[in-house]
Specification:
Blueprint: H1 3-21, H2 27-32, E1 38-45, E2 49-50, H3 54-64, E3 69-72, E4 79-80, E5 85-92, H4 93-123, E6 130-132, H5 142-151, E7 165-167, H6 169-175, H7 178-188, E8 195-199, H8 202-211, E9 215-219, H9 223-233, E10 239-242, H10 247-254, E11 260-262, H11 265-268, E12 275-279
Parallel strand pairs: 6-11, 7-8, 8-9, 9-10, 10-11
Antiparallel strand pairs: 1-5, 1-12, 2-4, 3-5
């Protein structure tokens, strides 16, 4: 993701957060803090994690007051530990207080996703398998959450329904067969659009291969069934394992030889990392 695109995505999300949090300003800070007051604060980690989201936190304060100084102490994607100071921010006190919660909400959420992603990436280290995210994201924050996944070493799956074809069980129930679904999709979409098929059993894997699918999702299969699917595909198309992919079993799944493992929990269940903004002046 380029800087320009990231800024556009950040601005949209931050503007929405400001409308939610300050529809009529910050009546507390504006009432009790002198207008000329200046302060300095640190983003303090309360637990270990992987960093993602400092550019978003920086942008929150830039939009509130361009004079605010924001100094990052850690790089995106790096591991940090409890009591580490992740960044320093200095400027008008009222602006810092206005941005505190919005910046922390983004930072804690994105660090949580990055931390969860890194655990899965490390669990399959040494295999060829890559960890994929899904569309199970927070409405309005999908691209930022996928940014956190990629920052921690994960790989982004499709970002929207418009990006690629993914024929799933509900499509197949209506269409009737894998081959017919692939045929219809191939006839309808422009050249270059990938077509992936969800397969619940080895018969559907064979049908997807015969139909010319570009990728096959192995849905809720046993480890042994996935191993057989890898043998059937014989490297002709990438295989994605999906369904109940916990840390406890992800290594065994990777060792079957699948190319990807998609993990919805990276974004729908990641625990936010505890981070505070501590004022020192």
């Amino acid at each position: 993701m380029g800087t320009e695109e990231l800024n556009r995505i950040m601005d949209a999300a931050i503007d929405a957060a400001f409308r939610e949090d300050m529809p009529s300003g910050d009546i507390t800070s504006e009432s009790v803090i002198p207008a000329g007051s200046r302060s300095e604060a640190y983003f303090l980690a309360k637990e270990d994690g992987v960093l993602a989201g400092l550019p978003v936190a920086r942008r929150v304060f830039e939009k509130l007051d361009p004079s605010i100084i924001f100094i990052e102490r850690f790089r995106e994607g790096s591991a940090f530990h409890q009591s580490d100071k992740l960044a320093r921010v200095k400027g008008p006190t009222i602006a810092l207080l206005k941005g505190e919660r919005t910046a922390l909400n983004f930072l804690q959420r994105l660090c949580g996703i990055a931390t969860a992603t890194r655990r899965y990436v490390e669990a399959v280290a040494g295999t060829k398998t890559r960890i994929l995210d899904t569309r199970k994201t927070t409405p309005g924050l999908r691209l930022l959450e996928k940014y956190a996944v990629s920052t921690a070493g994960g790989t982004n799956h499709r970002s929207s329904l418009s990006e690629m074809v993914l024929i799933k069980d509900n499509h197949l129930r209506r269409v009737g067969s894998v081959s017919e679904a692939v045929r219809r999709a191939r006839a309808a979409v422009r050249p270059g659009i990938r077509i992936e098929v969800e397969a619940a059993n080895l018969l559907q894997v064979r049908e997807a291969l015969a139909a010319g699918a570009d990728m096959i999702m192995l849905d809720n299969m046993t480890v042994e069934m996935m191993r057989q699917a890898v043998a059937l595909a014989a490297g002709r198309v990438p295989l994605e394992a999906s369904g109940n992919m916990t840390l406890d079993r992800v290594r065994a799944v990777a060792e079957t030889g699948v190319d990807f493992i998609s993990v919805g929990a990276l974004t729908h269940s990641a625990k936010a990392i505890d981070i505070s903004l501590d004022f020192v002046s």
